[in-house]
Design a protein that fits this description.
Blueprint lengths: L9 E7 L3 E2 L9 H16 L9 E4 L10 H6 L10 E3 L6 H15 L4 E8 L10 H12 L3 H8 L23 H12 L3 H20 L25 H5 L22 E10 L1 H6 L6 E10 L11 H13 L8 E4 L4 H12 L1 H6 L21 H4 L6 H16 L3 E8 L3 E8 L1
Parallel strand pairs: 3-4, 3-5, 8-9
Antiparallel strand pairs: 1-6, 1-7, 2-6, 5-6, 7-10, 9-10
Helix pairs in contact: 3-14, 4-5, 6-11
């Protein structure tokens, strides 16, 4: 078989719903509702009614058993062609960026011509389940054919079995939450509370300025009466954030608060990818190109920082692309926590870390802070886990289009000690 020449992967653009604090504006909505809304918004923006999309890859981190193929069901709730296949994927907070990476490989190799990468999170609608003992009892009752069998299935029943079990918020192998892990990282890297609060305040200011300038006008599609994110606080400041209590640890060492950590968030986002020929045939714009991508993991169970995966992913990706960390006009570093961003930046500047962990002769070095998250990021807009990657891709290509060109770096940390990174160029 002749080797195919890889084709450029065009990012045509994306949309997202407004992101809203969990149990607020979207309290009555499901993952299906939110994802369908984002996909329909994408269809409307780019005139895709009736269009056959070669694959739609989407997912959610917290989902119900009924959402067994969420991507397929959501696209069938839109005006996209019902012949479009849907694939449901989950890689924690990297879900929709990983979806874009998988589809990009197929577009580049010529297997498909177009794709949608998306993610959703309805944390207001968590799956509440019973414990294993009661679940098994229900199954035995369902299978019982006689009164005697039913009584046997009920033998030993206690009301304690009815206690619901909400989704776990801790890592299964350490029993620590992501916030607790990040608190340990902040202490390990010497990240101060003041530094975190400054990052958080800047994120809100930049997002508010972007709204005022009309940057989000085409990126955000209305949902349930919402027109903009409700987590954003345009009037926040370092002084206001400094007044908040720490939330993952108490005592002098504690630094993480609700203000410098992302809120539990509902929302969805979607990005349209395609070959240049597919976009040109339909008169669609090409805002940028997905040129590199990488995923990596760290051994957080043995003591590495849970959210340090992007340091590894970015390093490996830059090695392959023969780029330096300074070869970018823009940096989109997901703000799961302000401390995570600060730890990542400090690690890239550390000669010891870059040598011992990343295997580099020299540190990756510092970046220009004025080029990082220039329209704000997760601390201000929120973080619906599976939707964040698509939100960042859509934002970054709009930034590059507004700037008239350049190269952008994407860095996303995830639960489970993983990191997902990408390069976008225009």
């Amino acid at each position: 078989m002749a080797r195919k020449t890889l084709r450029p992967v065009a990012i045509i653009g994306g949309v997202r719903t407004p992101f809203c604090r969990a149990n607020s504006a979207y309290a009555e909505l499901s993952n299906l509702d939110l994802l369908s809304g984002a996909l329909q918004g994408l269809s409307a923006r780019f005139g895709l009614k009736g269009e056959l999309i070669d694959e739609v890859i989407a997912g959610a981190v917290i989902s119900h058993s009924r959402d067994w193929n969420l991507a397929r069901e959501a696209l069938q709730s839109t005006d996209l062609s019902s012949l479009s296949p849907g694939i449901t994927l989950q890689q924690a907070c990297g879900t929709s960026l990983q979806a874009a990476m998988l589809s990009a490989g197929k577009i580049a190799s010529g297997q498909i011509e177009c794709a949608i990468a998306a993610g959703t999170e309805a944390l207001s609608d968590p799956p509440i389940v019973f414990g294993k003992r009661f679940s098994q009892r229900l199954l035995r009752l369902q299978q019982a054919r006689s009164v005697k069998d039913k009584l046997r299935a009920l033998k030993g029943f206690g009301f304690s079995e009815l206690a619901p079990q909400p989704p776990a918020v801790a890592e299964a192998r350490t029993f620590l939450s992501m916030g607790q892990h990040c608190e340990l990282m902040a202490q390990q890297w010497g990240i101060s509370r003041a530094e975190q609060d400054a990052l958080a305040a800047a994120s809100h200011r930049k997002t508010a300025a972007a709204y005022d300038a009309g940057f989000f006008d085409e990126l955000i599609v209305p949902c349930a009466g919402m027109l903009r994110d409700n987590i954003l606080r345009a009037d926040t400041s370092e002084e206001k954030l400094a007044a908040l209590k720490t939330c993952f640890e108490r005592g002098e060492r504690a630094t993480l608060t609700a203000g410098n950590s992302t809120s539990l968030t509902d929302g969805a986002a979607a990005v349209l990818l395609g070959s240049e020929a597919w976009a040109k045939k339909r008169g669609l714009p090409v805002l940028g190109y997905l040129t590199e991508a990488q995923t990596a993991a760290v051994d957080y169970v043995s003591g590495e920082g849970l959210l340090m995966g992007p340091t590894v992913a970015v390093s490996q990706m830059l090695n392959r692309a023969k780029l330096s960390l300074q070869d970018f006009e823009f940096y989109e570093i997901h703000e799961a926590f302000a401390a995570q961003v600060a730890c990542t930046l400090k690690a890239w500047e550390s000669a010891d870390y870059c040598r011992d962990r990343l295997g580099r002769d020299e540190p990756l070095g510092a970046i220009d802070a004025q080029r990082m998250n220039v329209k704000g990021s997760s601390l201000a807009v929120g973080h619906p886990f599976a939707a964040t990657g698509a939100r960042i891709l859509a934002t970054l290509v709009e930034i590059l289009a507004e700037a008239g060109g350049g190269r952008g770096l994407v860095s996303v940390c995830t639960a489970g000690g993983m990191g997902v990174a990408a390069v976008v160029e225009r």
